[in-house]
Amino acid sequence: MDAVCRDWRTAPIDPKEKALFGYLERLTLEPASLRQEDADAVLAAGWGEDEVFDAVTTCALFGFFNRWIDGNGVPDTPPGFYTARIAQMGDFRYA
């Protein structure tokens, strides 16, 4: 996971995942540049239409929420917040 967060292009992940991350990066940074060929390449890499739909939806929602939070000045959580919360309430099997 750390390698993917640092740079998905050089991370030791499947080429199928790299194809999807490349598509989502363009969707985030240059949405108007996407063409049918870009979606076709992700599908050709082995992703299904439903999976691409879910990935695009997740990407769009994160973009929306990040802009909403930044635009409204919602402060970040203080350091250690999530660790303390997990210690207090458990990880709900997410960790």
Report on this structure.
This protein is mainly alpha-helical and 95 residues long. The protein has a single domain (2-89), classed as AhpD-like (Up-down Bundle), CATH 1.20.1290.10. The chain contains five helices and no strands. It has helices at residues 2-6, 15-29, 36-44, 49-72, 81-89. It starts with a helix and ends in a 6-residue tail after the last helix.
For CATH, the homologous superfamily is named as: AhpD-like
Structural category: mainly alpha
What name does CATH use for the topology? AhpD-like
Number of distinct beta strands: 0
Query: What's the shape?
Result: extended
What is the ordering of alpha helices and beta strands? HHHHH
Oligomer state of the chains in this structure: single chain
Please name the CATH architecture. Answer: Up-down Bundle
What Rg do the Cα atoms give? 17 Å
Write down the domain tally.
Answer: 1
Helix content: 55-70%
Distance between the termini: 13 Å
Number of continuous helical runs = 5
**What is the top-level CATH class?**
Mainly Alpha
Mean pLDDT: 93
List low-confidence stretches: none
Strand content: under 5%
For the sheet with most strands, the description reads:
none
What is the secondary structure topology, with strand pairs?
Blueprint: H1 2-6, H2 15-29, H3 36-44, H4 49-72, H5 81-89
Helix pairs in contact: 2-3, 2-4
Question: Care to give the gist of this entry?
Answer:
This protein is mainly alpha-helical and 95 residues long. It has five helices and no strands. The radius of gyration is 17 Å and the shape is extended.
